[in-house]
């Protein structure tokens, strides 16, 4: 079995590629297509992703957990996979009918039916993507190399075929095509692990759990994915462009930590099943330490350097993304801690009821704040809604964790790591003053800031490279 460190490295590369490849092309397409067309593509993609969320329900989580449990027996694994994929096909069929109906009845969607049909292609391909299966099998090496090769091909296609403002359809097509090509190879590789048969099956054994976890995912989306769709409905494509640009770097950075928690879920589930509570607690402590060392310096750096980061990523015309970005970046810490207490504690312990209650609280907060803030505050309001909702969700999840295993927020560790970051803060503020009093140009400012951040990580994080599964 691969070690956590090996799986983590592959998972980091995989998740980073999911965000890094769009980031590599983003400075190009944002200048070629303009903020309005970028906002339009992101609005349509937000709608499609929302329907993908409904079609997947809780399969991404339940699938990983159940595959990890059954992977030692080919027959049980095959039956498990086929039951789950049947549920996925059923949910996708229902969602597809609803989506097509909305395409012909909602004026905002009807006006962009060409993009919506491309999105339908993505929705259908997602059924056969089955990333949850390979993550449960801990086959991170396969999905990592496959993903990088396919993304590289699509990236080249974008640079070749997207040349002016009218090419936004081609851009969105290539972004969706990655799903279809990945799904094709994933499905072809599947026979190495399972045997297909026409057995009757029993989808009911997973339906309740998938519905609960699906409700959690859908409710959670009311203050994450839904933000983009709602912003597009009550505001403009330009405001959507500001908001999606603001969260672009956050998504890439957070992908690193999400890669870690994604690797930890099957391993923590196995530890719980084996009743190895000592190892379980040890990995939790290490997760908290990694979170604080990883996120705190980046929060300081990105808040100070937000205007320059936006300028580099998107060029001129995106100044409206600076304020939302500064509001979003602290979520690296908040959501990172949420992932620890939900993905590494509540999910392996199978406390699905608590997870569902937690998501209901977050969804209610997100809906109310969206209605109150977004129509007037636009992209800034969306950032505030997201941040406030996540804080409330974190507090709620922490309450359930303390109730279960008497583990509270590691405040002592947080204070100690914050103290270590203070010299970095002073150095970056000093650099900021030199830049704004014209003692250096933007390029020197960015490079020196990056060097200071890099030195800080080398000094403070070297011991984390020794992280192993005990």
Fold and architecture overview:
This protein has helices at 4-56, 59-70, 74-103, 107-110, 113-127, 131-136, 140-161, 168-189, 204-221, 225-234, 237-273, 277-304, 306-314, 322-328, 331-346, 352-405, 411-436, 442-461. The protein starts with a helix and ends in a 9-residue tail after the last helix. The model has no long low-confidence stretch (mean pLDDT 84). The chain is built from 18 helices and no strands. 83% of the residues lie in helices and 0% in strands. Helix 1 packs across helix 7 (140-161), helix 1 crosses helix 9 and helix 1 packs across helix 10. It folds into 2 domains: 1-221, no CATH class; 233-470, no CATH class. It is globular and about 70 Å long. The longest helix has 54 residues, at 352-405. The protein is mainly α and 470 residues long. InterPro entries: Poly_Biosynth_Transport (IPR050833), Polysacc_synth (IPR002797). It is a multi-pass membrane protein. Its main location: membrane. The chain crosses the membrane at residues 7-27, 47-68, 89-109, 115-134, 143-162, 168-189, 210-234, 240-260, 290-307, 327-347, 354-377, 383-405, 417-437, 443-465. It is found in: Cell membrane.
């Amino acid at each position: 079995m691969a070690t956590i460190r090996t799986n983590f490295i592959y998972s980091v590369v995989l998740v980073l590629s999911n965000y890094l490849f769009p980031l590599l092309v983003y400075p190009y397409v944002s200048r070629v297509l303009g903020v309005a067309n970028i906002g339009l593509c992101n609005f349509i993609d937000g709608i499609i992703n929302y329907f993908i969320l409904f079609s997947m329900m809780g399969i991404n989580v339940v699938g990983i957990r159940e595959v990890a449990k059954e992977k030692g027996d080919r027959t049980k694994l095959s039956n498990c996979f086929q039951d789950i994929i049947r549920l996925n096909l059923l949910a996708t069929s229902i969602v597809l009918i609803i989506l097509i109906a909305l395409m012909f009845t909602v004026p905002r969607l009807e006006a962009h039916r060409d993009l919506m049909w491309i999105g339908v292609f993505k929705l259908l391909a997602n059924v056969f993507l089955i990333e949850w299966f390979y993550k449960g099998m801990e086959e991170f090496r396969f999905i990592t190399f496959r993903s990088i090769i396919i993304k590289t091909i699509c990236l080249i296609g974008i640079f070749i075929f997207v040349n002016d403002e009218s090419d936004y359809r081609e851009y969105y097509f290539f972004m969706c095509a990655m799903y279809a090509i990945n799904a094709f190879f994933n499905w072809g590789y599947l026979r190495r692990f399972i045997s297909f048969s026409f057995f009757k099956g029993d989808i009911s054994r997973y339906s309740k759990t998938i519905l609960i976890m699906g409700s959690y995912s859908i409710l959670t989306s009311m203050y994450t994915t839904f933000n983009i769709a709602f912003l597009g409905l009550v505001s403009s494509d330009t405001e959507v462009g500001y908001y999606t640009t603001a969260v672009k770097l956050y998504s890439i950075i957070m992908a690193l930590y999400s890669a870690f928690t994604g690797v930890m879920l099957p391993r923590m589930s196995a530890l719980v099943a084996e009743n190895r509570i000592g190892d379980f607690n040890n990995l939790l402590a290490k997760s908290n330490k990694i979170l604080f060392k990883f996120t705190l310096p980046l929060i300081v750096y990105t808040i100070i350097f937000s205007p320059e980061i936006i300028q580099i990523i998107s060029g001129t015309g995106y100044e409206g993304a600076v304020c939302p970005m500064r509001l979003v970046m602290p979520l690296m810490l908040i959501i990172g801690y949420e992932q620890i207490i939900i993905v590494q504690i509540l999910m392996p312990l199978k406390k699905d009821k608590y997870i569902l209650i937690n998501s209901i609280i977050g969804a209610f907060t997100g809906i109310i704040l969206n209605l109150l803030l977004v129509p007037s505050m636009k992209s800034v309001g969306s950032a505030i809604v997201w941040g406030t909702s996540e804080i409330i969700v974190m507090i709620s999840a922490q309450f359930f964790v303390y109730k279960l295993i008497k583990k509270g927020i590691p405040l002592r560790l947080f204070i100690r790591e914050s103290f270590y970051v203070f010299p970095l803060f002073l150095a970056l503020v000093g650099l900021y003053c030199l830049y704004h009093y014209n003692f250096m140009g933007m390029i020197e400012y960015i490079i020196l800031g990056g060097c200071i951040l890099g030195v800080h990580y080398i000094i403070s994080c070297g011991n984390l490279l020794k992280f192993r599964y005990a």
